[in-house]
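Action item from last week, closing it out:
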Amino acid sequence: MQTSKTGLSKTVIYVRIALHVVWKYRRHLSIRFLYRAARLLWAFYDNKIIVRNHTYKLHLYLPAYPTPAFFKAVEGKLLYRPPKPISMVWGITKACSYKCPHCYQRLDKGTDLPADKLKETVHAISKAGVSFLNIEGGDAFLMFDKLCTLLDATTSDMEVWINTTGAHVTREKLAILKEKNVYGFMVSLHSADAKVHDDFVGIPGAFKQAKDTLALCSKMGFGTAINTVLQYKDIQNHTLEQIMDIANRLHCGFVQLIHPKRAGKWLSNTALYEQDKDLIAYVKHAYYQYNKKPQLPALPAQAEEEDVKRFGCTAGGVDRFYIGASGEVQPCEFLNISFGNLTQEPFEVIFKRMRAAFPTPFVEWACEKRAPQIYAFMQQHNISQTPLPYEYTRELVAGWTDGTPTPIYKKIGIYEQN
């Protein structure tokens, strides 16, 4: 069972964490260290804390305190120069029985990486600093043996979540994943209306399957989250309120709001940005509204987390990055460019190249700022697949200029450039 903490009880936990960090890293103590640690910790304070099995989640994509993965994330940000990334999303297969129109992998090509390459890469991304691993597909449950092979290569300093539609999930498979220390599952649910959700993903019965999966995962002691792509029309339909009610009844810890992105199948969808301002304003309001209510799940929202007063865009290995099923290393799942393929070059080489192109976090969201340029480039060169291979990415990013540094990171100075 997952419970939440707000108000005074949340403050007490933050004080406990702060004291623990100070004591654990007392050899590194300085005014600068304390300032940086306090600013980073405070940036999470508006979130609701989710408690599960005596661990505390300050944010969906930050490993739970006081696990080894949590302290790996802390060390990666405060003890290394340049700082290390925290999270990675990994699509291990393109196989999927669903037909979601917003799929950012829909135009991806190439052959899925073999299991031995997955194992090799797990060690490389861990060394790079990744402490939060979010595995997805397509549908990872369609390649269950490969999924298990990958999980066998992970260590306790990496918190693992799996994205799923709910399809192909069984109690037997979940029991196996429990033994492999999977922390939680994120299940897609894009409407509170069964028919609307089923029509959106193109599969009858998908809504029931998603809810059944969430209920089963919660019953078996996993962390649970709902992923929902919130569109402008959903504001008037009160979709969020209804999904929050469903999440509460299913004992979910989180409802993650993802506003529509121009990526994959929607890369050419210029209409997405026409109502973007109103939608993002609504999402930010909902973030503050729901995260103050202790009886409801936490509400992480990308639009708020990437706001100018928080972390901004941290794609490209600043805080996060993405690896596609065929081995293309991308700055973000919503940014359809690749800095190299794992079948052709070592991860370390590709990652260094990507970090050089994304050296610091910026206020501007790369997925929104660069999508029109990526789409225009594809049209100009008659390219129909994503992500753009590195030979094209290199040409495209050569003309990109730096954005505005995110204030919080600029103030604490952990991304200072020589």
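Closing note: The two ends are 48 Å apart (CA to CA).
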